[in-house]
Amino acid sequence: MRSGLKVLSLLGFLLYVGSWIFTFRPIHQPELDPWTSSKSSSSYMPDSEIYKCSTCSWSKYTPNKFFGNLDPLEEFQDVQIPQEFPPILCLPESFGYTHEEASNIFKEVNFPDCRSKADYKEDFLELDIQNNQLKMNCPNGKGWYSLGINPALEELGKNEYTFELKKYPGHPVELTNNEEYAYGTCSSKTGNLDQAVYKHRPKSSVLSKPKHSKPLIILNLTLDSVSRRFFYRKLPKTVEFLNNLQGYTAFDFKIHNVMGEWSASNVVPQVCGDILFKMHRERIYEDLFYDKSLWKYANDSGFATMFIEEGCTDDLSKYLGRRLRVDHTVTSFYCAAEKFSGFKNNLPDQRCIGHHNSHVYVYNYISEFSKNYKGIHQWIYSHINTAHEKSGTVINTLDSDTLEFLKSYLQENKDSQLVVFLTGDHGMRYGDWFKKVDGAHEHRLPLCVVIASDSLLESIEGVYDTLTHNSRRLTSKLDLYTSQLHLVAETKKHIAKNSKDYLKLKSMTSTEYKPISLFLEKVPNNRTCEDIKIPSFWCSCLKMQEVKETEYPEFIYKIAQEVVYQINEETNSPKTSTYSHICQKLSLKGITKLQVLATKEEYYKMQFTVNESDSALFETVVLVTSKKYNARNINEAYPFYPYFFRDKKFKVMYIRRVDSYAGACEDLCKAKMIEAELCICHPLEYILEKEPRLKNYVDTSY
User: Fold this and answer.
1) What is the Cβ-side half-sphere exposure of residue 526, based on CA atoms within 13 angstroms?
2) Do 61 and 465 contact (CB within 8 A), yes or no?
3) Distance (Å, rounded) from C-alpha 655 to C-alpha 595?
4) pLDDT in tens, 5-27
5) For the stretch 56-85, what's the b/e string if a residue is b when 16 or more beta carbons lie within 10 angstroms of its beta carbon?
6) Residue 206, SS3?
7) Angle at the Cα of 450 from the Cα atoms of 447 and 456, rounded to 5 degrees
8) How many Å apart are CA 226 and CA 453, to the nearest integer?
9) Is the sign of the CA dihedral 472, 477, 482, 488 positive or negative?
10) What is the percent of the chain where pLDDT is above 90?
11) In Å, what is the CA distance from 264 to each residue of 229, 260, 279, 316, 535?
12) Average pLDDT over residues 343-362
């Protein structure tokens, strides 16, 4: 009996191995490093002598404001960045989706005003901070309410809100725990409540901090999952406002590159600099990186500090810790909203809490914080999760509210020196974000707009020239950290770009990489992703070198054959067999161009032809690596495939057509929801014989 089980187990193991080999088709090849490295040399490499020049654009500084025209905030300013000599090494070949691609992926949805959806349109809930009372004025004279937690107990991250509804006694309720928020209803229902109110309560310890005639306010306004182009597509009213500022100037950083896939990979460097960090599965209550945090430097310089996140989530607390040593932490309001308002962080639908979209409570709290601490230096980090969902439509609720917030906030703080870092932590991760270069770069190039008071800018020599230059060069979150260190330091003493003080600030950010203050120093044209800790995998501008050979090593052709296999998987495989009468099964004809890059990983960029078309020209980038990356949904990304029992894996980063493929074949593909640029159609007669109704979608002259 036992021997029989052993035979069955061995048979099962062999079947498993056989299926693994069949499924993954590993590619056998020699070690790649020597060959790839030898092909990666270039006269335009970062350390080339041509970049050591005193007359280069990044070595010259125009001292006055009127050095030239400022870039308008326009979506396609990114493709208008002028090339120079010596060349700008980082100019992405794509900055994100085209309008057509974006409109196909992200549908336009108009959402109603939250107040119009409420049972009670009038405000009946009031939190009176001055008299320390909760007041309700329900039309029926009744009401139920639930108060927030004591602000002293606030901590970052997800917590269960356990307070229950209480019946309103008909007279004001005393606030015994310094509560800042409340939820209420005028009906007896226990589902979503009608209203919520959130008020900032100033602390006497913060009010005693030094006051200034022109205090510095640094506001980090992070919009989760918002790429630069997504911002332009979805927030047109806000963009128009930023183009017509009075007393402020906005700079659009067009090549602001992510440092990783997730929020923490980008937020932690922005607020803590170059540190090693990891995700903690257990609850960590200490402020893990306080000594490197911006709020520590701000606290030491007499700033009022705040960390506010729209969401009941551990996305940041698992990395930073839960009890940040800031004056105000805000998250539990949203944990209560999950209980009383049906709020969910990733919900692909409008997120109303009472009469307002959920992000409005963040905006209102920031405004009250700045009013209550008027005259005091302020440092604020805020995280807005509105766009953090898969449909790409809820962001439409953000435009009007963001416009109104910025309009009022900039006006209210016109007598301060205000800097707003309006950023995305990363771009969109939805759609074919790893199968198309446009989708991949939509994620890699998040929003980064810096809005600053003209009074502040005019106090920094050459700053308009410097910021405009830097807005056209590669930047990362480490630059945002260094810039904030610089601004905080400027409240104590003037920092010159050639000073020891500035060198110290940069070394505080990183002793290994080359960050700068965006306000003080120009980015050189030879800056690469490696210079500012952007991993090659997430870099939008890998600098590859063309291989000048007519015959390539055998493994290069095997890689190309694997890419063709991936195309057939998309258009002609058994799992998509309904397409096989439309798209031909392709076979590799030849490789027409090859570029390589050897870092700690191997990148191959090639153009190739297929036997089934005389005109089709495909391009692909392929990665060979021993690093481990998160697997993605097969609808969003090509999978990793192992080599023959080696520690390296092979991955197609993207595939695209170089030639024009518009026409009847594209029309047929759209009718059947096939990826048109990967499909070489069969003759029309053959297609219509198999599916006659498709005649309605094409010009029969095809």
Assistant:
1) 16
2) yes
3) 15
4) 444 444 443 443 443 333 444 44
5) bbbeebbeeeeeeebbebebebbeebeeee
6) helix
7) 175
8) 24
9) positive
10) 70
11) 22, 8, 9, 6, 15
12) 94
Per-residue tokens: 416? 């301060």
Do the beta carbons of residue 62 and residue 231 sit within 8 Å?
Answer: no
List the beta strands (DSSP E) in 544-633.
545-546, 588-598, 602-610, 618-625
Which amino acid is located at 551 in the chain?
A: E
The mean-pLDDT minimum among 277-281, 485-489, 547-551 falls in 547-551
Residue 623 near residue 537, CB atoms below 8 Å: yes
Specify which residues 650 forms β-bridges with: 624, 641
The two structure tokens encoding residue 68 = 């030239």
Element spanning 251, H or E: strand 248-252
Q: What is the pLDDT of residues 522-533, one digit of tens each?
A: 999 999 999 999
Are the CB atoms for 181 and 337 separated by under 8 Å? no
Percent of the chain's residues with pLDDT above 70: 91
Task: Output the CA torsion 112→116→119→120 (10° steps).
Answer: 140
pLDDT at 629: 81
| Token digits of residue 413 | 């703080």
**H/E run at residue 320:** helix 317-320
How far from 685 is each of 555, 568, 678, 681, 692, CA to CA, in Å?
A: 38, 22, 20, 11, 9
How far is C-alpha 297 from the geometric centre of its chain's CA atoms? Answer: 26
Q: Give the pairing of strands 144-147 and 181-185.
A: antiparallel
Residues β-bridged to residue 304: 378
pLDDT band at 2 (very low <50, low <70, confident <90, very high): very low
Task: Report how far apart, in Å, the C-alpha atoms of 634 and of each of 121, 533, 578, 639 are.
Answer: 46, 28, 19, 7
Which residues on adjacent β-strands are paired with residue 452? 249, 419
Token pair recorded at residue 392: 């790409």
pLDDT in tens, 96-117: 999 888 888 888 899 999 999 9
Instruction: Dump the DSSP string for 469-499.
Output: HHTTSEE-HHHHHHHHHHHHHHTTS---TTS
Is the confidence at residue 35, as pLDDT, over 90?
A: no
Backbone angles phi, psi at 497, to 5 degrees: -70, -20
Q: At what angle do helices 398-412 and 358-372 cross, to 10 degrees?
A: 0
- CB of 198 closer than 8 Å to CB of 333: yes
Name, in order, each residue with C-beta under 8 angstroms of 611's C-beta and a sequence gap of 6 or more: 586, 587, 588, 589
Average pLDDT (449-478) is 96
The contacts of residue 35 (CB under 8 Å, 6+ apart) are: 553
Q: Which helix (H) or strand (E) covers residue 652, if one does?
A: strand 649-657
Which residues, other chains included, contact 539 with Cβ-Cβ below 8 Å and sequence gap of 6+?
Answer: 257, 444, 529
